[in-house]
Recover the amino acids of this structure.
């Protein structure tokens, strides 16, 4: 087991947790293909459904598959956290990624069974707070990411964090091919957080129109705005327009983090990152991982040939 890869992945990639997109089928396909699959707990309507999802994922995977990862909201208003932590203790995902709050509430539970805690961060300020809390890793959301996005480039973010943090770094933001994965690892990251590339897969829960919009889009078809949730995020411009939202005048709707019951109003407002230009068809996730693996190895060989004495 590599010191820098306790998850023992085929490729150092997390299929990032995507709101209303990631479900058991996508998570299982990712793990079977050799990368870590993840999902946000808020994609389930009830704690009973979450239990079913976690049981399905755990039952489908073998020791030969990559481990799965769970994304939990730790915001103080999120009412399901205690029940979700009980399920985490029951099913023991290899890592838990916390979001929208301090990672401290999950540390004892996850570390108790030997799991890793990553904190989702979009700024150096939040990264330092999470590091001080004792997390094992940081999921660094950089400029170019879909959904809630950061402002630093992936390279600048990783470099700055390495000044004070020796733990694991998963970096996301516009990385959509194997060469990008290799570049992120060379720059000091341990893993790449990739979402948009896996959005138009056969296993994704995204609506067909959503998948087709991602395939047709380029980075010029994105809009960065805080008008949807009150926080800067990257959206497919066409979906925002279809929803009748004027991002220049709309008052932020905001999200209620007390549960998943408000998901309907987000079903037709679709997030995507700058990796949209790389997807060309709806295909099995395993095919994408095969492409990423080939591109990653080619990038490593190219680097080695350029640096050979």
């Amino acid at each position: 087991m590599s010191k820098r890869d306790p998850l023992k992945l085929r490729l150092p990639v997390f299929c990032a947790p995507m709101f209303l997109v990631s479900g058991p089928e996508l998570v299982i396909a990712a793990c079977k293909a050799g990368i870590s699959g993840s999902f946000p707990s808020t994609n389930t309507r009830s704690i009973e459904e979450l239990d079913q999802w976690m049981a399905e994922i755990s039952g489908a995977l073998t020791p030969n598959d990559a481990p799965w990862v769970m994304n939990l909201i730790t915001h103080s208003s999120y009412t399901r956290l205690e029940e979700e932590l009980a399920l985490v203790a029951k099913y023991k995902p290899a890592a838990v990624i916390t979001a929208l709050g301090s990672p401290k509430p999950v540390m004892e539970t996850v570390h108790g069974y030997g799991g890793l805690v990553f904190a989702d961060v979009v700024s150096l300020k939040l990264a330092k707070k999470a590091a001080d809390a004792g997390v094992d890793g940081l999921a660094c959301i950089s400029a170019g990411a879909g959904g809630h996005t950061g402002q630093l480039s992936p390279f600048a973010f990783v470099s700055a964090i390495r000044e004070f943090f020796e733990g694991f770094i998963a970096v996301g933001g516009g990385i959509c091919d194997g060469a990008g994965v290799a570049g992120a690892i060379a720059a000091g990251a341990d893993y790449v957080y990739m979402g948009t590339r896996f959005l138009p897969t056969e296993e994704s829960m995204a609506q067909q129109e959503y998948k087709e919009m991602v395939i047709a889009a380029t980075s010029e078809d994105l809009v960065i705005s805080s008008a949807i949730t009150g926080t800067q995020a990257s959206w497919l411009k066409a979906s925002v327009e279809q929803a009748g939202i004027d991002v220049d005048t709309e008052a932020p709707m905001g999200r209620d983090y007390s549960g998943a019951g408000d998901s309907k109003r987000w079903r037709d407002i679709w997030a995507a990152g700058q990796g949209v230009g790389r997807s060309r068809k709806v295909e099995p996730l395993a095919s994408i991982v095969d492409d990423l693996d080939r591109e990653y190895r080619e990038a490593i060989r190219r680097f080695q040939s350029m640096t050979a004495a």
About this structure: The chain has one domain: 13-206+274-307. The two ends are 29 Å apart (CA to CA). The longest helix spans residues 285-307.
